[in-house]
Amino acid sequence: MKILISNDDGIAAMGIKALMKELSKDHEVYAIAPDRERSAAGHSLTLHTPIRVEELEPQFGAKRVWVTSGTPGDCVKIGINAILSKEEQPDIVISGINHGPNLGIDILYSGTVSCAMEGAMLGVPSIAVSLASMSMEPLYFEVTAKFVRKFLKRIEKIDFPEKTILNINTPALEEQDTAGVQITKLGSKMFTDDYEKRIDPRGKTYYWMAGELTTKHEDDGTDIAAVRNNMVSVTPITYQMTHKAIMADLEREFCKDGICDWWGYDNKGN
Questions:
Q1: Residue 216: which residues within 8 A CB-CB, separation 6 or more?
Q2: In 14-163, which residue ranges form alpha helices assigned H by DSSP?
């Protein structure tokens, strides 16, 4: 397969290096990543400033490597639409390996997940991969990369759903210590929303986000519970956010009998 790899931790991050090195054993790998860390960038794009792109020497087994001044979403969008040739277009986009978990509703802030979501929005099967470790040592990036390599061999056997990404989180463990793989749904919040109030040397107030990992109970079947139980979680996520269950109630209240004449051009002033 042809694989486009990107991330939000930057081109120098250990996670993307481990992924390039491992996946290039079986596949044709291209990498386009930010020039610096862009964690929690969400699904942002660069609109009002130019995006600088520089091709680097091939490294860690990748056939071609670029670094950009853009966001994670920019990297995938510009890569598929402007940088990669027709012959280099990816069969799959993989974002990661992120240093830290991307679980529960906190994925809405994640540059890693949004990077993969951009691939899905462009019609390319996409996967986000995160190592659920907050410590610097040991890192287990190589273990996670090996899991992804094996996972790709199995993913070829299913009909990858359109407009969907697979969000993978691995525990910080050796393969033999992992309790298995679980297909999961999103949990609640992984981090608290605490802010620390401080005073700068000029006497001005500022705030520093100081969220910590929660200990809140999670129901079985969620991604957070799976990782806490030393399992790899695989969560299918779609960007189709229409809440269809409430549409009938809204129709009955605001458009009775299919007519919505209480506002706009057909309004009689009642």
A1: 188, 189
A2: 14-23, 72-78, 111-121, 141-155
CB atoms within 10 A of CB 151: 17
* Contact yes or no for 68/35 (Cβ under 8 A): yes
Residue 264: band (very low, low, confident or very high) from pLDDT cuts 50, 70, 90: low
Is the pLDDT reported for residue 131 higher than 80?
yes
Distance CA(11)–CA(237), nearest Å, equals: 25
Q: How confident is the model at residue 255 (pLDDT cuts 50, 70, 90)?
A: confident
* Alpha-carbon gap, residue 47 to 71, rounded angstroms: 11
For residue 40, the model assigns a pLDDT of: 63
Rounded Cα distance between 44 and 62, Å, is 26
**Could you tell me the two tokens for 176?**
């033999």
Rg (CA), the chain: 21
